[in-house]
Design brief:
Number of strands: 8
Helix content: 25-40%
Strand order of the largest sheet: 1-2-4-3-5-6-7-8
Strand content: 15-25%
Structural class: alpha/beta
Shape: globular
Order of helices and strands: HEEEHHEHEHEHHHHEHEHH
Largest sheet: 8 strands, mixed
Number of helices: 12
Distance between the termini: 55 Å
């Protein structure tokens, strides 16, 4: 079928301590065979990256149908992005967004979910797992922000520098230069994609939201809370780290501290692939991620029979 974003789009009001009452946009799809689906199957929440014009649909819309065949799959526009509200960031963005995602899960009645996060969304996913460990099953982190620690590459990386260039000079040319660092296959950088993301990146409140988010990682009062690599050893969840070998935003050498520090981490590297593995290596990415998530076991409790009771 041809999936329309309007058919699966929802808006919900949530309340968090930092942001007050705000609206979040999410996309929800589950196409599993209801006659064979286990009712305890853990849903999957996908969290997008943070470049100009980013949203859950731009990052994961093309992947939604494939994942929804195996899991109830929910794409979330994090605060400040897409069709969600764009309040000023209070504290570090990962914690700010993570608390909003938890409020959304509460609103949807979801006790536990798997989290799949790309770049900025990877940082949000990890912060959620650290702060609310019982709410998370397994983690798939794609070139995650905050956890990636460059061993050999200079900061800012090429992709981050292009992002900063756009922030200072928000033109279509600057946006195209940024998007070009996301992928190896430059045929994916279409005029349609540039126009779509440019419209989102220059929508009312979008630039201010981007600046507020970015400042939370540079402000001395909040920056250290975003250095998730310092807390990686505390992460107890099974974690799949995925990286494009040619990632020019969070380069591959940044994966190795995380692989070393996270007790239950494993790493998969996609060849000839940049920062958008879910797009550039779509089929392989889905196969590997689904297989990893399906190994998650949910403890089931049953009532003991009279013979078994003491």
């Amino acid at each position: 079928m041809t999936l329309s974003k309007d058919d699966v789009a929802h808006d919900v009001r949530i309340k968090t301590e930092a942001a007050g009452e705000i609206s979040l946009r999410y996309y929800d799809l589950d196409t599993r065979d209801s006659s064979v689906v286990e009712p305890v199957e853990t849903p999957l929440v996908m969290l997008h990256g943070g470049g100009p014009g980013a949203s859950s649909w731009s990052n994961f819309g093309s992947a939604l149908e494939g994942f929804a065949a195996d899991f109830r799959t929910i794409l979330v526009d994090q605060p400040g992005f897409g069709a969600s509200d764009k309040p000023p960031v209070v504290g570090n963005y990962y914690r700010f967004a993570g608390d909003a995602v938890i409020a959304l899960l509460d609103e949807l009645g979801l006790e536990k979910v798997h989290l799949l996060g790309n770049s900025l969304g990877g940082g949000t996913a990890m912060r959620i797992a650290l702060t609310y460990p019982d709410r998370v099953g397994r983690l798939v982190l794609m070139g995650p922000g905050g956890l990636s620690l460059n061993l050999f590459h200079a900061d800012p990386t090429e992709g981050v520098q292009r992002l900063m260039d756009f922030s200072g000079n928000p033109t279509r040319e600057a946006l195209r230069a940024f998007i070009s660092t996301m992928v190896v296959n430059q045929k994916l950088v279409t005029d349609e994609l540039v126009e779509e993301r440019f419209a989102d990146a220059t929508a009312p409140g979008a630039r201010e939201a981007m600046a507020s988010m970015g400042w939370s990682f540079y402000n001395p009062e909040t920056a250290e809370d975003g250095m998730l690599w310092r807390e990686a050893h505390q992460l107890k969840h099974h974690t799949l780290l995925t990286w494009g070998r040619e990632d020019r935003v969070n380069p591959l050498d940044g994966a190795f501290p995380a692989l070393k520090l996270i007790p239950k981490a494993q790493l998969h590297v996609f060849p000839r692939c940049g920062h958008w593995a879910q797009i550039e290596a779509a089929d392989e990415f889905r196969e590997i991620a689904v297989a990893f998530l399906k190994r998650h076991s949910v403890k089931r409790h049953r009532e003991r029979t009279p013979e078994e009771k003491p």
